[in-house]
Amino acid sequence: MMRRKNAILTTAALATAAVLGLAGCSAGAGSSSGGDGDTPTTATIALTGTPTNLDFTTTAGSAIPQALMSNVYEGLVELDQSGEIQPLLAKEWTVSDDRKTYTFTLQEGVTFSNGDEFTADDVKFSFDRVKTDWVSSLKAKMDVVDSVDVVSPTEVAVTLSTPSNAWLFSLATPVGAIFSEDGVADLANTPVGTGPYAVEKWTPNESLVFDTRDDYWGEAPGVEQVTLKYFADATATTNALQTGDVDAIANLQAPELLSSFEADDKFVVTTGTSSGEVSLSMNNKAAPFDDVRVRQAVLYALDKQAILDTAWNGYGSLVATYATPTDPYYEDLNDKYPYDPEKAKELLKEAGQENLDITFTVPTRPYAQAVSEIVVSQLKDVGINAKIESAEFPAVWLDKVFTQHDYQLTTVLAVEARDILTVFNDPNYYIGYDNSKIAPIAAEADAADEAGYIEGMKQVSEQIVDDAASGVLFLFPNITVAKAGLQGMPENAIIEALDLTNLSWK
């Protein structure tokens, strides 16, 4: 039984998106070989941005699913590198004529890393558990599920309360992860999944070590062990690669350092696409951003191309909201708020908010540090005086901004795929956007046929942009640098997962 081998979608160098990171404790390929001249048997990947624990069912942030999805946990389906839904733990499925019941035929001979056999009971347990035990806001993606019925050990029927265009796609994200009932006692430290890797060692803030499973049901990776190694900043990751302490950097956070790798044939640089938006989030429930004119003024005040060129060396692309080019309902809305400082000043005067003082809460992430000073300078030109308040990421930022909503303006890299409704269709989300206009449109679109879904979601995007609910500074590029002999690093970051299942050395 063969595990999927995803095709790599080659893109031009102005790609898109990204994710957060993790850590490791081995020394890289040079020290992990079987002997002089032997092919290495391990790989060490450098990232920035450590997860606070290993339980994405209760803890927000993309660093946890980045490490665990595809590698430790699997779902019934997955996304390939072009963003298409492919079978995984489900061999196939059928959909009823009313589009409400999905019947999945499951792979056989699959076991969890604790030895438990995977059956339809685990699917029911996992899907039901989203509603009962999950704390993460992602749980809302399962609200449409009315019932999960075990037909046989290898067949499960899921009935939705209404047809949903988005639900099957959601199964490829963390909310679709399959758990064993005997394996959820300590998810924060000991994840148990059906994937090709098992967690060997978790050292918070330092490293996460995966061992390749001998009993994996599919095609095993070409390495025996993978270490994810956390670094405090982007410069440290590049230094580690240059000195041989790591074998690759996933999602390089310092594009200005690329030239040294591009000129060296010992390394391979790839730039791919993804769904990560570097947001400029305005708290719609807090003054002064509870006034649409102030939010619109901010968007007119920003020269986003200059921000992209200065902060990220021109890597990435411009989008107006959280609908990205890999989404079926994407449309280019960049012209809605052209760079127009005079228009921004007019709106601020109309709102009675001239010489405005605000606090800009900036997480301690490379992209955030890079964009913040430029944003502050451009806002100052129109009479908005933004004071930068640094927030340690993830712990402080997640608590202060995401949980307590105690902020006025912030920026964060939002990497969840197709997250426009997650962000804007919930007034209790940290953005605080009044979703009363888009909620009925989104509901009707989700239950419509494909054409109706696309048209409805375009209307949702247009309304969000009209309301200047929040901005997107640019769509993040997925830049990977690896030793020339390491193969299988994913070029694109379509969802949060850093899929390391195809790693091997040549």
Give a nutshell description of this structure.
By secondary structure, the protein is α+β, with helices and mostly antiparallel strands. The protein contains 13 helices and 21 strands.
What descriptors fit this protein?
disordered N terminus; 506 residues; seven-stranded mixed β-sheet; 13 helices; six-stranded mixed β-sheet; alpha+beta
Describe the structure.
The protein has 506 residues and is α+β, with helices and mostly antiparallel strands. Helix content is 24%, strand content 21%. It has 13 helices and 21 strands. A 7-stranded mixed sheet has the order 8-9-10-1-11-19-12. Strands 13, 14, 15, 16, 17 and 18 form a 6-stranded mixed sheet that branches. A 4-stranded antiparallel sheet has the order 4-5-7-6, covered by helices on one side. A hairpin with a 5-residue loop joins strand 4 and strand 5 (101-106).
Helix content: 10-25%
The number of helices is: 13
What does the average pLDDT come to? 91
Question: What's the number of extended β-strand segments?
Answer: 21
Poorly predicted ranges: 1-36
Strand content: 15-25%
Main sheet: strand order = 8-9-10-1-11-19-12
What oligomeric assembly is this protein in? single chain
Largest sheet: 7 strands, mixed
Topology summary:
Blueprint: E1 42-48, H1 63-68, E2 77-79, E3 85-87, E4 90-95, E5 101-106, H2 120-132, E6 145-152, E7 155-160, H3 167-170, E8 197-203, E9 207-212, E10 225-231, H4 234-242, E11 248-249, H5 258-262, E12 267-272, E13 277-282, H6 292-301, H7 304-312, H8 341-350, E14 356-363, H9 366-380, E15 384-391, H10 395-403, E16 409-410, E17 413-414, H11 420-424, H12 438-447, H13 450-466, E18 471-475, E19 478-483, E20 486-487, E21 504-505
Helix pairs in contact: 6-8, 7-9, 12-13
